[in-house]
Every structure is written in C-alpha cells, then in structure tokens.
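Entry for the shared binder. Reason: the reviewer on the internal report wants the predicted structure included alongside the sequence.
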Amino acid sequence: MKIKAQIPNLFTLLNLFSGCVALVMVSESKPEEAFFFVCLGIFFDFFDGFFARKFNVAGPLGVQLDSLADMVTSGVVPGYVMYKLMLHTDVFGPDSYLPYLGFIITLGACYRLAKFNIDTRQSDSFIGLPTPANALFFLSIPVFPSVLHDNYGIVFSCNKVELLLLTLLSAYIMNAEIPLFSLKIKNFSVAKYKLQIFFLALSVLLLLFLNIVAVPLIIILYILLSVLDNNLHITHKA
C-alpha cells in the first residue's frame, strides 16, 4: 500500500523535473524543446491524478506536491517565455525593465493554483483557464512563427503592446469566474459528453492539419465553446 501511495507522487515529481528542464531550454533559446518538456510535464500531471484515484490514495500531500510542480511547469516557465519574448522585441532596450512584466503570467498562475486548492466548485469542471492550458498557449508562441514561415510562407511577429495585452489577459482569464467544461469523460455516453467529444475531435483535426499552430487556436476554441455552452444553459433555464 505504501508503494502504491508513492506512485502518484513520483509522477508529480516527474512533472516538476520536466518543468525544470523546460526552464533550461527556454534560457538556451530552444523553444521546440521547451514546448516538448512542458507537454511532457502536463502528461505526468494528468497521470498523477489518474493513479491517485485508481489506487484511492489521494491525500493532502499529493495536493500540495501537485500545485508546487504545476507552479514551475505551468507557472514559472510560461512567465519566463513571455519575459524572453519581450526582451527580444525591438522596442525594449537592453536596460528596460518592462520585459519583467511577463512574469505577471507567473503571478496569475500562482494565485489560480492556490485558489483551486480551496475551491470546492472545481472538482468536476473548471472555473477560469487551467494553468496547463495557459502554459501550452504561451509555449507555442515562440515556435509557430517558424512553422508558419516554413510551411505557409507567412511572417508572424508580436509587438510590445500585443505581448503586454496577452500577459494581462492570461492572468485575468486564469482567475476569471468563467466556468469551463471538463475533459474528464467518465463513461461513453455520447449524449452527455457531446460537447467534449466535438471539441476533442475538432482539436485532433486542427493538430493534423496545422501542427503546433493549432495549439493556441485549440485553447481559444476551448474558452469560446465553454462560454457558448454557459450561455445556452442560462437560456434553457430562463
């Protein structure tokens, strides 16, 4: 039983390790590798909860470890990415302090993770954008300009205003009182999970056709579908 109890914690620590490696990759200006290790960390993050439920060993230690690991992989890493993006825009000089505002993403993620731990409303769904989804959005930004250019001949770049707006929007959307549907499908009821199935199917198609360019589109689609679903439920109740 003791060994089983440590299996979820091992996956959580692997999430943390992946986040640490991703930080190194960002510092070495290797965006593709950083994106890969964040994806790997999120993969481990999913399975720590899976095994905790499967072995019925969920406890307060696992909850705290999970948040601490997510703080690095899905909090510090995307903040550091935004810092680096702002640092390399033409507008910011070498002595500018403005790129440090990229870490507002990290502050927003920290607040969300702490709030999530004490919010009993988020057991089966989410309120505000989960930090892993937010991290994937920002880790894809340094990667897909080269993909767009190599595959479609499209030149893409962000200016300082767009980067600052994205940073502020990120901190807001993670903590906003916006219910987002859960992707946990507990049975194979098409009627009950039609929205999740539609979203997952569309996400797979986008990934097949657009590769990593699809990642930010999928995150935006997730938010828009959740808002639409919320409005439909309100309309039906009225």
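Summary line for the report: The beta strands are 126-127, 179-180.
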